[in-house]
Amino acid sequence: MSHSRPAAFAGLVVAVALFMLAAHRSNASAAAADGTMAVSVDRSAPEQGAVVRVELRGAPGPDNALIHWKGRGWPMKACGDGCFEALAGIDLAEAPGRHTLTVMATRGGVALRADVELEVRERAFPLQSFNVPKEKDVQDPVLARRIEEEARTFRERIDAPPSTPSWSAPFQPPVPGFAPSHFGARRVINGEPRNPHTGGDMTLPAGTPVHAVADGRVVFSGEQFFGGNELLVDHGGGVFSMYFHLSERSVSEGQLVRRGERIGSVGATGRATGPHLHFGLRVTGARVDPAALPGLVDKR
Ligand SMILES: [Zn+2]
After folding, report:
1. Which helix (DSSP H) or strand (DSSP E) does residue 8 occupy?
2. What is the mean pLDDT of residues 79-96?
3. Can you give the pTM of this predicted structure?
4. What's the gap in Å between 115 CA and the centre of ligand 1?
5. pLDDT digit string (tens) for 241-267?
6. Is the dihedral of CA 134, 136, 142, 144 positive or negative?
7. CATH numbers and ranges of domains, the chain
8. 245 C-alpha to center of ligand 1: Å?
9. Ligand 1 centroid to residue 200 C-alpha, Å
């Protein structure tokens, strides 16, 4: 799956070079130099773990558009007359400070570009300390290698050339009344500091049906050491949802799923202390808070 990436990167580099001439920038909103395209964001000072909605309005509308963010390009989604939208994720470990998001579009063969400045703010994440049984902890080199390979498999699916956006807001909660906790928690396991918790957990009865949060394609369905029975769904435009510790997976790799479709059941497979759903989101490669997407989390 990695063999097609160099070509995609080369294309992007050429596009960036062409668009440089029309650059224009301001804070939170921007316009292409010819005045026919305006770009806005729903937040200009996002916290770590947040998602920024980017909207482009053109008169006339462009033929196509993409956002360029953190070194990669992601296709935008048409949202009506002259409108394109995209979601840009702010990784939970993103460096606080100023970052530039670029929107690039073409209309009748003419390149348009607008830059938006985002001021990323630091967020205070909770500290979570717990113990797991020794045999479930990472000790021996064979297990460490398995974990590394599993992580690479997952990364490859997420880093593959981006697919056409099939998501639409609002998203649907993966379970009714979804109220996840521990996103971004800095973890100390058996007394040792570990990687932060990159999703949200919710304790639920085993067997509770789990639903796809938006239309998409299942790009991973399998069993791994940490997540047990895992599903990874690509919603296009750089938006991925993941569902861990399932007792069963009812969809297979490559399968298209619809928003709200049942895709599995809550369980305690993998490294879990009891039945719960671990739900994770990647948006443009960033590990973001499930509460950052509209409709996913019950905020009552
Ligand atoms: Zn979790």
Report:
1. helix 5-19
2. 96
3. 0.86
4. 36
5. 999 999 999 999 999 999 999 999 999
6. negative
7. 5-120 (2.60.40.2470), 127-292 (2.70.70.10)
8. 9
9. 6
